[in-house]
Amino acid sequence: MFALASASTLPIPTTAQAPAQPTEPAQESRGATISVLPEANADAQIAARIRGIFQEVDGLEAVDSGVAAGVVTLAGSVPSGEFAERAVAIASRVAGVVTVQDRIRRDLDLDTNLAPAIVQFRDDIRSWLRALPLIGVALAIGIAIAVLGYLVAARENWWRWIAPNAFMAELVATSVRFIFVILGLIATLEVLGATALLGAVLGGAGVIGIALGFAVRDTVDNYVSSLMLSLRQPFRANDHVVIDTNEGRVVRLTSRATILMTLDGNHLRVPNSTVFKAVILNYTRNPERRFEFDLGVDANDDPVAGMQVGLAALEALDFVLDTPSANAIIWEVGDSNIVLRFFGWVNQERTDFLKGRSLAIQAAKSALEGAGFALPEPIYRLRFDESVPASLAAVTQAAAKPARNRDSKPEPKTQDIAPDAHVEQLVNEERAESVTEDLLDSRRPIE
Questions:
Q1: Could you read off the pLDDT of 282-301 as tens digits, one per residue?
Q2: Structural domains present in the chain
């Protein structure tokens, strides 16, 4: 291992008073000029100077130096390679040194290597013991700031007054706690004089945060969606909604999911990320709802007259609204019939939608049949061989018999058209008994 003296460093004066002569250490890498006539006794002075320096440096006491023509040869033993590099660096800085030959070996003796480590460990323990009061004060300051943050965040009334809903209030309180904890950590490191460590910690936390963000992006997406839903309030409790293909009445909106009760009385949890991105159909917001159905009349019948007869039957029903009025259109012309489509409106607060639609279909059908309109069925043409079996012929004859008398109809009974409130009642009972958080706020407008 060779080291060259640097011409840019200041020369270290020797112990002897030598004549003032500009002597610059030569550098082989730069092609520096080496003096032709060395100074008298210069080698001895250089060697004495280097040995004197090594005696004052811990770990270099056993290093010996020999100088010939400005070339320094270092020999001896050191505890580690770092000490050898240090010795070469010191020798290279002495004035008059041309180059340095490193022949230092590492001392592998157990006592030599173990003793410094024990001493260093003992010094570290003593340093920590002396620093315990300072560490205690720093921790006390940091903990006091963090506790103050928790006390401030615990004032729920403040945050509920500031934030628009409970979810936002909880989010603000959590942010306050986090900020105070960070301030406590900064204060602790400031007292300890280790603010540089804070940058490393925050940098590492940022990298870890990015990695965790990619890992839990679905959870973060759901959390942000919950926040937006709590602000937008897209529906109320007990609203009859369809979210994508999920239909039911809203039980509650939590920080993770929207709870629906299906029309079958079952609970359905829809993630808020799905709810926020989905198309929501709300049947409750407007009590008036339109129903429709199709009826086919014979191709030879007058479809306009059929529409008038059907509309008259719909308008005669008490639950069908006058405004908006019922109407009908010719929807299509089939192979053997003309399809008429009828429309009518009901008030869902007084009339069950499905019950009202069923009674409207029955009324229009009966009116058309009573007015002589035929409601044709699909026509199928069958062709049989002459060698048809007797059993099949009997079946054909039985099918050709006249149908039973359709004119003898039972007396109509009063139909119940009241809305089915059973599922709505189940939702109200569950909301009254449950203590689970609910982000739905009836005081805020629906967006």
A1: 999 999 999 999 999 998 89
A2: 2-108 (3.30.1340.30), 115-215 (no CATH), 231-285+421-447 (2.30.30.60), 288-380 (3.30.70.100)
